[in-house]
Amino acid sequence: MTHPREEVRARLQTDRPHSARVWNYLLGGKDNYPVDSEAGEVILKTFPEFAAVARLQRRFLARAVRFLAGEAGVRQFLDIGTGLPTADNTHELAQRIAPESRIVYVDNDPLVLVHAQALLTSSTEGACAYVDADVRDPERILAEAAKTLDLSRPVALTMLGIMGQISDAERPADLVSTLMSALPSGSYLALSDGTDTNEALNTAVEVYNGQSANTYHLRSPQRIASFFAGLELVEPGVVSTAAWRPEADRPEEDTADVSVCGVAVKK
Asked: Which residues pair with 165 in a beta bridge?
């Protein structure tokens, strides 16, 4: 019988880079292994603006959650592909506006879950839960999320940088549809992902895929927009990450336009 610690060690695969840990390195974090920082440096050598892209995505998360908890009045969040905790995590952003907000984080990287359980603590009025599951198993995610969230009431589903982890053969649009179909009217989808519109980024991702434990799939802006099918997009629609409701007092970094995002509501 495999010891639980041995199982976790095997899942960590510290001999190969993992996307959450590489992303952590690009954001300036320390929760990564040498193999992850090496992969991050390879990406930066080919596409030096990638760290700025990572920061832009985190800022989109902040703006989207503030919109969802504030203007949209959502009090439940299902964050799939959580990544390693940094500043301004989903529950912190939501609970600053509405302390009673309830958040379920989902990831399949054991290092992410260990850190999440240690660092992501809820307000006393709200709740945080952590699910060890893969986005390819939406039924399990929904079943586990229902232990913390009331799925008869609106939920904001956030999927930032996660659909690129799914190949076309795994039918990413169907995964989004399955998740949103289980949520009631008034629920939202916030999604962002990398585009295939920049040759340097295409090359960097190709190099990364050649050595990583999980591959990333860049797609056209039109394909990413199709993940919102059947939902009503919030203005300004599907746009570059920096262009979604930018804050006037905090101009975004001037970097290559290599990711798109959007927020949409289920009517």
From this structure: none
Which of 87, 16, 33, 25 is closest to 50 using CA atoms? Answer: 25
CA-based R_g, the chain, Å: 18
Cα end-to-end span (Å), the chain: 49
Handedness of CA 138, 114, 40, 189 (dihedral sign): positive
φ and ψ of 252, to 5 deg: -80, 160
3-state DSSP percent of the chain in helix, strand and coil, to 5: 45, 15, 40
Q: Identify residue 101 by its one-letter amino acid code.
A: S
pLDDT per residue as tens, the chain (267 positions): 444 445 545 555 666 777 777 777 877 777 778 888 888 887 888 888 877 888 888 899 999 999 999 999 999 999 998 876 666 889 999 999 999 999 999 988 777 777 777 667 889 999 999 999 999 999 999 999 999 999 999 999 999 989 999 999 999 999 999 999 999 999 999 999 999 999 998 998 898 888 877 789 999 999 999 999 999 999 999 999 999 999 887 766 667 679 999 999 999
DSSP per-residue letters across 108-123: S-HHHHHHHHHH-PPP
